[in-house]
Amino acid sequence: MQWFLDFPISPLPNKISYQSKILSMGSCFADVIGGKMQNLKFDTLVNPFGTIFHPLILGDLLDHAIFQDELDQEGILERDGLFFHYGVHSDLKGKSKEDLSQKYSSQIQQTKEYLEKGSHLILTFGTSWIYELPEYGRVANCHKQAQKLFDKRLASLQEMQNHLTHVFGNISRAFPQLKIILTVSPVRHIKDGISENQLSKSLLRVLCGNLEKQFDFVSYFPAYEIMMDELRDYRFYKSDLIHPTQEAENYIWKKWKKAIFDAETEQKVSEIAKIQLELAHRPLNPESDSHRKFQQNLLAKLERLDGEFDFSKEIESLKD
C-alpha cells in the first residue's frame, strides 16, 4: 500500500541563478524561502517592511516603492515609547516619528533598487482576511491595539485582483525585466477559524491562478499544495499546529530548488550548503592538529569562491 503521494511540479519558466537579484515579500514563507537563498549567497532582499500577510497591503507597498512615496503620517502610532505605522509590520519601528520616517524611506529606496535592478520578485500571500481602521483604512498590522478599533472583513477576489492588476501593470511598465513568482503560504491562519482559513486560502489560490493567466511574466509555485497534500500530517507542524516544522520547510525547499534552479545553479547551491555546514562545525578540541587542518582546508575553499560569492566575513572569522 502506498502511504505517500507526491505530485509533479513543472519547472518554472524564469529560472533563478547566482546572477539573479531577488526581492522576497509577504508572509512567513517569504522569510523562509528568502532566508534560505540569502544563506546560500543569493543576492536577496527579504521582507524590507516586515512580515506582510495580505495581497492588498503588498500591492500598496510595491506601489509606494515604485513612486517613492513618503510615509503617511496619519498612520503613525506610539506604543511603549516607540513609534509604529499601520502600513507596515512592527519590525519597522522608530524612537521618534522622524526616525520611523527615515527608516521607512530607507526601506522604500532599497525596495525600489531591487525592483529596478532585480530579476525576480517573490510574493507570498498569507490570508484574504484584512483589518481596517475607520479613520485610516486597511492596515498591515494592528500593533497590539484593541481589536474593537478595527473592522475585519474578507477581501473579495475581484478587489484583490483589480489592485494587483494595477500594481503589476505599473511594474511591467517601469521594470519590464522583472519576473514575478507567486506562492500561497502553507502557514494556517486558524485563529480566523478552520473553515474561514480554507475560504481565505481558496481565494488566494484563485487569485494567483488568475494573475498567472493574465500576465506572461507571472508564475506560481505550489508551496501550499505541497503542505496540504504531500505533507498532510500534523507531524509536519510545530507544536502550535499552525507553522510548518523545519523538516517540512526543508522538504518544500527541495521542491523549490528543483523547480526554480537549473542544473548548474543546483550544483553551486549544494557546494555552498556543504561549506555552510562546515562553517557551523563545532570541534571537540579547537587546539587539535586535525581541527587546524580542517580550518586551513575550509579557508582555502572560501578564498577560492570569494571572487564569485561574498565570503569576506567568514574568511575574516577563520583568520581571527
From TrEMBL:
**Chain ranges of the GSCFA domain:** 21-256
Tell me which SUPFAM superfamilies the record gives.
SGNH hydrolase
Output the superkingdom of the source species.
Bacteria
Q: Which Pfam families match?
A: GSCFA
> What name has this protein been given in UniProt?
GSCFA family protein
